[in-house]
Fold each of these.
Amino acid sequence: MPEHPPALIEFRNVSIMRGERPALRDVSLRIEPAEHVAILGPNGCGKSTFIKAITRECYPLARPDASLRILGQERWNIFELRGLLGIITNDLVAACLREASALEIVLSGFFSSVRVMPYHRFDTSMVQAATAALRTMEADHLASRSMTEMSSGEVHRVVTARALVHRPRALLLDEPCTSLDLRAQRDVRRIFRNLAQSGLGLILVTHDLADIIPEIGRVILLRNGRIEADGSKGEVLTADRLGALFGIPVELLERDGHYHLV
């Protein structure tokens, strides 16, 4: 009987402190490589700490019953890990805002940096891959433009292309539509739908219900560092649950797999 492949992400009884404050409390969850999952919660619920645990910027409290595995491993060379996960955070977007062309920023993804250094060596195949990633994000026309001359929506497209350049196993998206206008939000969400339909795994971390595209089938509600609910989108996204999560009475609208609060 074939061995079951390791989970993309597996938390077991994970607790993480930020200073003297617990940011995650006994979190247990398993996400498979090709899953499309949303982590939804208000500001301060532990979403950023969840991301930093995966990127190895925060570590769980050492306890006998606690573990955090990525693709079956607890210990990683961080540069090898970055080659397997396409990670897009607002901190990374800010770091990429520099006097560099879009093509250079995308190429930097091969080196887990945010610029191409003089000692970095890349070949024609890497340039072709970077150009293809920009094309996937409908941003190949930006290849020679400086990042400092782009709109917020254009910057997000380039940074996402950077995350795609090494063909990751999954994308980890942190509030992907922050600072984008309505048209840019629509375009970015449409591209993420295309990526999900291609079979790429997506882990979306957000406080905005509108970010949860129809291809996301599972939603995890996070509040005060704990998992409040974990299940199918239809089961978890209810007015009662969301009202309790955000602390306000809400009405919920759903149309063609898109959910909105009113």
Amino acid sequence: MTTFSVARTNELRLTRRSAMSSIPTKQRFSLENQVAFITGANSGIGYAIASLFSASGAKLALFDRDPQMLETAEALAVPAQPALALIGDVCNTADVQKAVKIAHKHFGRIDILINNAGIGPLRPSEEMPDDLWDKTIAVNLRGPFVVAREIGNIMIAQKRGKIVHVASQASVVAIEGHVAYCASKAGLVGLSKVQALEWGKYNINVNCVSPTVVLTELGSVAWGGEKGNELRKQVPIGRFAEPHEIAASVAFLASDAADMITGENLMIDGGYTIH
């Protein structure tokens, strides 16, 4: 009995090793020749994601309302990895549909969607005007839904795809003055879970990442001084995140290495939300 158990155990180990080695580790983490559609790609976290994806071999469709996106795409492109600049507003369904159609026609497919575009105007609940609330929900929640719907249909036809929504630690904790932002990011997490449930049968993975304060140009200004010092004290790691750290987590979720992860909200917050 003991001999049989040991033999059987060794057989199982060999089978597992064989299965794991059928795809090289480097290939599982690679984005080589993958077509990635990234919103809000011209600055901050979006630019860091686009830069890492380009360095990892992905072909880029970069969507942003800033006309400077044309120069950014040119700077990120290399001969074997083109970067397509698409100018438009995620709040405008016609803009989104046009950009997705152009990207799909240009590359022939879309393998990855990174929904990164977002805004964060701050007001106390009692002072939040309707128009600012509506704008925040439109950019942070309706926009990602429309982009994901349009690209989701392409991925359903392809029978594969990876979608990563960039949410925030504000999706799970309350932050004073962030009523519209918190609501929009919590909604984005809910959106991703439903899409993961509905689209899993098409081999489409849908996840969120939720960063803490990220030291982009805007983040550094908004959370500078004593305000930032007080918040950092509540982060177990003792610091805020750098844009490249968010990009690395997004790249993992977009890779084949994350094939078994869907419907999750990955906190990238240095432990802030474990309090």
Amino acid sequence: MPPAEPTPSSFFDKASPRAQGVLYVLIAATLWSTGGAFIKSVSLDAFQISFWRSLFAALTIVAIVKPRKISLDSVTFFASLAYAATLVLFVVANKLTTAANAILLQYTAPIYILVLAHIILHERITLLQVGTVALCLVGMAIFFLDRISPEGYLGNALAVLSGVCFAFMTVFLRKQREDNPAESLLLGNLLIVFVTGGIVMWQASENPKGVLHPDVYFGFAVSTADSIMVAFLGIFQIGIPYILFTKGMRSLRALDASLVGMLEPVLNPLWVLFVIGETPSLYAVFGGVVIIVAVLIQSLWSPQVKPTPTFTPD
């Protein structure tokens, strides 16, 4: 009898830990990249989207990870706070500027990680890294040369701030060597639900129809189409990808994981172009190329650092 063919899972199991980590992050980045198109398609405002998306994400994390407790130490708190700020700022930025601007400016995060890793994790900064930071700053400046509305400039600024928060989140997750980063993700989503839920209800109180009107209902009224899209955002664009991201970081440094995730800013504008028809400006294309080239230079020519074996959770 011929030997049974190996199952697909056996190929994955035989892969090196680093290869598995890269695959987890690549899948996460692919799912993340759908965010721009769906956020642009939903008729809800940024706070309503953030509320429903994080509610579905929290339920997804509970269903998959089944956390028994949530630690309230300082690292978990700051990681969850940075995570929550990253998600909300990105949604608001997408509503104010183009999806290409929002995602490409957010993906200056690896540059901030270099600085934060030196300050928080005491990792050495090289001359190459300083040059990479300078090149990324040039790329960011190009985005603000575009002739866009004041809201567009604000959206660009919030996208940059989202990248800063993403960098803080990644570094704090790396610092959680013995804890479960999924706790930070769950706490962050619950924080978003609590804060944005309050904002949504406050906005509803100003609605002339009244908070109990079927079109308002305390600000949480949602159409069938919108409910399907925010459920997708919560489950498949945030919940599952961030779980995969934390699994991938078992064998990848914080910087390596963020660089592998560069697939997201490549795919995100393409999804938006196909679904919404929104075309990036020449400034966005040129500035994005400068940023991606700078980060890739840092990735390819920087010295390799041995990853911490006990970086992320079980």
Amino acid sequence: MRCYKNLFVISVTYLIIVFFIGCSGTSLQTKDLLMSPKIDLVNYALSSNGSTAESPDNSPDHPPSAVIDGDTSSLNWDNGGGWEGSLSYLRSNEPLKRSYVQINLPSKRQVKQIVVYTLDSQKYPASKYGLRTYNVEYWHGTGWARIDAIEGKPSTGKIKSDRLSTVESNVSGKIVHNIKGELITDKIRLVPLLSNDTEKDYDLTSFGGRPIFNISGSAKVIEIQVWCYPSVLEPVAFEEQANLSLVGKSQLSADEKAIRSILNNYKQGYDNEDIKLVMSGFADDFTTLDGKSKVDIEKNATKFFEDYSSINLTFRDIRIDIATSADSATIAANYTLECVSRTDNNIRRRNDTLVFNFHKDTDLNWKIKSAK
């Protein structure tokens, strides 16, 4: 594990282009740069943490409250453990009649991971009775949207990135969803589409010509965990990232807007793992304090993207100081960097400060000249 941590720190150091200087003026040691591989997240989906659960259509013997009671075992299924939802929408294929189980969190939280436990025991194996295909959705204030997630372990289901389903062809009892980017919400719901015991037999045709089927099988969910940060991190407003506001000033100058635009492209490059966008603001003769060039930075950034996924970079407290000559500037910003290791699937997170020096080139375009 120590090897993985050091690799992460080295990659982050070059990608962020921040060189941490102590009070004595010397670089901090590698051990001081290590990020914890795990975050102390809280499962706010638990009823004991103030959450509630609801469903418009479920078996009375398997209520929605069972998915937030903290019991992830399937052994109590015959005695009322877990939630059982209907798949009757398949009878005439009417999406608006889909069942769901919804979790109402006690307040808005920043969600980082959702774990779904479907029925899976020796008597009722997931491959025969568990959820096969479903959506995970969040409430964004005016409606529901499917969550963009990446697959975690353990899971043998296939997590998709299309508009049809979040997971398909699942045969595992536990499916882990690591959230991509920043997601703040107070409602999460699971919408089942198919179970592994679903059978659809033709019954008759309605007057409108629509086929009607007999449906067997049901959606069986044992527990849903919604892992969040203990407190909601204040998101950076889009206006600030898009250079539309600055503390202490009512209007930005053209130079300030241009510099903030470069910083925003840098952030978007991280979030989308787009190396060209990350490097777009760097001058060709960029150098670091220890002599690294633009080419060195690009190589290390590319390696970083190979080793880590679900990258999310957030800037706060951006300050821009433009020289009286108007051809150079220094920016300082606090940042939070989060990502998921492709090696061990653990989340990494770091808070620190970034400092860039900008300079206008011969075409009067701002470029990142160096970093402190």
